[in-house]
Amino acid sequence: MFTKLYKIFKGKPTDGPTPRGKWRLLITDMAVGDSVFVANRKEAERLRNAAYAQKKNISTRTLPDGTIQVWRIV
Predict the structure, then answer these.
(1) Counting CB atoms within 10 angstroms of each CB, which of 2, 11, 64, 70 has the fewest?
(2) DSSP class of residue 63?
(3) 8 phi, psi to nearest 5 deg
């Protein structure tokens, strides 16, 4: 299992105003190709909703330990 949730791999900070909510902030800070690990399907759905609100796309993969990896895609 992993120790830190919501760590962005190869992320870049945002230059614009900070959106409200941790999921919107997380998806804003993610560049195309970046991924994060979330604990369960509910968190992945919340991240997907935040991405949809910003017109961004994500892809998910469930890992054997039950965690979900979420990538920001084009």
Answers:
(1) 64
(2) -
(3) -90, 130
